[in-house]
Structure formats: C-alpha cells, structure tokens
Design goal:
Blueprint: E1 7-8, H1 14-35, H2 39-65, H3 80-94, H4 97-116, E2 121-122, H5 126-150, E3 154-155, H6 157-181, H7 206-233, E4 237-238, E5 244-245
Antiparallel strand pairs: 1-2, 3-5, 4-5
Helix pairs in contact: 1-5, 2-3, 3-4, 3-5, 4-5, 4-6
C-alpha cells in the first residue's frame, strides 16, 4: 500500500509530551525496582519481558510486509530502529554483552533522535502504529538505562569500538537497500521531512560526515566516566570479548538484593 499517509505524529503535541514523561518515569522507577529486587527475580522477569518484546517486534516487522501495510519507504527492516527492536530484546533475554553495548550506544543516541524528534506517518490504523512506534523506541531508551544503572553493566572501550563498527556495517546495509529501492532508510540519503537534529549538521552528504564524528565523540563521552571509575575501583572485565565491566563479581545463583547497580552481579556471556 503505497498511498498517501492518514496523518503524521505532531512533535511535542500532547501525546508526544505524555510519552516522554512516561519514559522518564519508567526509567527511574525500573532502575529503583531492579536495585532493590533479588537477582534471580530480576533476571526471570527481564527474560519474560524480552521474549514478549521480541515476539511483538517480529510480528510487527511481518505486519509491515503485508499488502495492506506495505510501504516502500517504511516497511523494509533497514532503519537502525528496526535492528534495535531485535537487539534490545536479545539483550534482555540473554544479557549478551554485544547486545548490551549496542543497545546502550544506539538506544541513547540514534534511537533518542526518534524519541525527541519523531518522524512518523500513519498509513493503516493510527492507534496501532502509534503504540508500536513508542514500544520500539521507548524500550530503546528504558532498557539500556536499566541494564547499566540497574544491573550494573559498564561499557568498555572495546564495547565502544564494537558498537561503532556495527553502526558502520548497518549503514552499508541501509545504503545498499536505499540504492536498490530509492528509499531513505537510516536517513542516509536525505534528512527527515520534519524537524530533526540532522538539520543542524548541514546539507547532505555533509551531515553524514559530521554525524559520524559527532557520534564518535558523544559515545566516547558515554564510555569515559565508566572507564575511569572502573579503573579506579579495579573492576574486572566481564565475559569473553571484554565489552563490558561489572564492578563486583558474584555467583549467578545469588539471591541477595541489589541496593546499588553494582552490588549483586553475575558473570555472563
């Protein structure tokens, strides 16, 4: 269905502002709950929620390929948010370190642009499309905050490098898709129609280079405080690949409560 949209989400309208407030409250509340809950309980509910979100993400991607919902500019899973809606549930289910670091860096920068300056057209059913947009982009904000500030995962410089390499790799995939279809996945071929942060970075293709440098700098700033703090505390690297640190290591079977993001942790993946 390549017809005109039914409408657009109004940036900073009542619904948008309400969702932003909800995401902020959910992030704070869930971090506090995780810190005060038993490790086994948190892990169990994180896995359950991850499976639910993964199933929802796969069904939504399938929905976009159906004839009644198909739109060349939107339906192919080539936006960064399309990848993130799969990676975030994987991080919740497995706590795999590669998924955690990508969720952290993508979720709180690339995804955050879509949260703060949404570029959304409605094509089939407005309530469903509104809900799915905010489920995907909302979990991209809330889950990384919980993983880092609740569970105590800390990105390392190797994790930074992996996330940046994944970003470049996905850009190549999206560029290829855009070249074959004439679409604009990842906003790699032109800026969004509505206002966005990209408007401040110059015209295409200049904004791509500026964005690449800006991402590298911002992500370094998102890594540096953890790297310095963990070096002072002597926090060990966690798992194969040294993509994250966890300041104290304990058995995964522990059932003590967390009173901070690093007091009960496990060595995993």
């Amino acid at each position: 269905m390549d017809g005109p949209p039914l409408g657009r989400m109004t940036p900073y309208g009542l619904e948008h502002v309400g969702v932003l407030a909800l995401l902020a409250l959910a992030s704070v509340a869930l971090v506090l709950v995780v810190r005060r809950s038993e490790s086994a309980t948190v892990d169990r509910w994180l896995r359950r929620a991850g499976w639910v979100l993964l199933a929802n993400s796969l069904l939504w991607l399938l929905w976009g390929l159906m004839p009644w919902a198909w739109n060349l500019e939107e339906s192919l899973p080539l936006h960064y948010s399309d990848a993130l809606r799969i990676i975030v549930p994987i991080a919740m289910i497995t706590q795999a370190h590669w998924a955690i670091v990508i969720s952290w860096f993508w979720g709180l920068t690339l995804n955050l642009q879509s949260v703060l300056t949404p570029d959304v057209n409605y094509f089939v059913w407005v309530p469903l499309e509104f809900a799915q947009y905010w489920i995907a982009h909302g979990m991209g904000v809330v889950v990384p905050v919980v993983l880092v500030w609740g569970l105590g995962y800390r990105p390392t410089w190797r994790g930074y490098g992996l996330a940046y390499a994944a970003t470049v790799a996905w850009a190549v995939i999206a560029f290829t898709g855009n070249a074959l279809t004439g679409a604009n996945y990842g906003y790699l071929n032109r800026a969004p129609a509505g206002p966005s942060i990209l408007d401040l970075l110059g015209p295409w293709p200049q904004y791509l280079l500026v964005e690449a440098v800006l991402i590298a700098v911002v992500w370094a700033l998102m890594t540096l405080p953890f790297a310095l703090g963990d070096a002072r505390r002597g926090a060990p690297l966690s798992g194969r690949g040294a993509l994250v640190r966890r300041p104290v290591q304990a058995s995964s079977s522990t059932s003590a409560s967390r009173s901070g993001p690093w007091e009960v942790v496990t060595t995993r993946r």
